[in-house]
Structures are given as C-alpha cells and as structure tokens.
Design brief:
Radius of gyration: 22 Å
Order of helices and strands: HEEEEEEEE
Number of helices: 1
CATH architecture of the largest domain: Beta Barrel
Largest sheet: 8 strands, antiparallel, barrel
Number of strands: 8
Strand order of the largest sheet: 1-2-3-4-5-6-7-8
Structural class: alpha+beta
CATH superfamily of the largest domain: Calycin beta-barrel core domain
Strand content: over 45%
Amino acid sequence: MKIFKKYATHLLIACLVLLATGNYAHAQNEDACTAQSIQGGYGFRVTGDNVALGAKFAIVGRFAADGQGHFEGIATESVSGQVGRTTFIGAYIVNADCTGAARFLFPNGVAATLDFVIVENGKEVLIIDSDQGTVESGVAKKQVVSHKNNQ
C-alpha cells in the first residue's frame, strides 16, 4: 500500500507539472507580441513631472504606427504652462511578452524614451517615460473609426 501511495503521489506531481508547463507554454503563445501588435492610429496622453527641469509636463495627441517599428504623430503639449503644438517621429520595438520601448524625436531636437506594455490585444498601451529625471506616465488607446453616417 505504501508503494502504491508513493507512485500515486509521484504520478500526481508529474501530471500537475505537465499541466502547469502546458498551460504556461499555451499562455506564452497567446501573449506573443510583435511590432505588428501596434499598428494604425492611437490617441495618447502622458502627464507628470520632469524633475530634471523642475517642470510639470502633459502631452495629448495622436500617432500612427506602421506595424514595422516606426511611427509619426502630432500633439499638443504643456511644459510648465507653456502650451504648443508639435509633431514627432520615432521608432519602437516590441518583445514577445508584450513589453517594449519607443524613442520619440521632436523637431526641436528633444528626444524621449518610453517603456510600454501592450494590453487588450493591442487596443491599449500603458506608457512610462524611462528617461532619468522624469516621473511621467500615460496611456495610448487604439482609435476606432466608425463608418456610420451620423445624420
């Protein structure tokens, strides 16, 4: 009886390990992201403090990603209350676990580096500025264009 219990326990543990490993592999496949996970138009906002400059910062705008690691956009930003419109271009990388990084380049020569996490199957992107001296975060949401005629 003791031998049976010993083998039954080992068999149960082996089955649990196989089930857990199978579920983990399945979860990894479901979460596999690529640059194509961010494609099309997104509305976004990032707010916070630029500690290095001693400035409050907010930016709201739109960008279009090509699904190949490049984007361009337009935004309105406020830096310590000075409001202006700007354009930008940039590049991004996406890891299989749906995390990634982006580098924004603005016409005035300023660059910003952001880390992000893709959620909701690419419908939303959680953002944090990863440059030293900043405490800025935000979100980007996939734009859905309705083709219904509003009359």
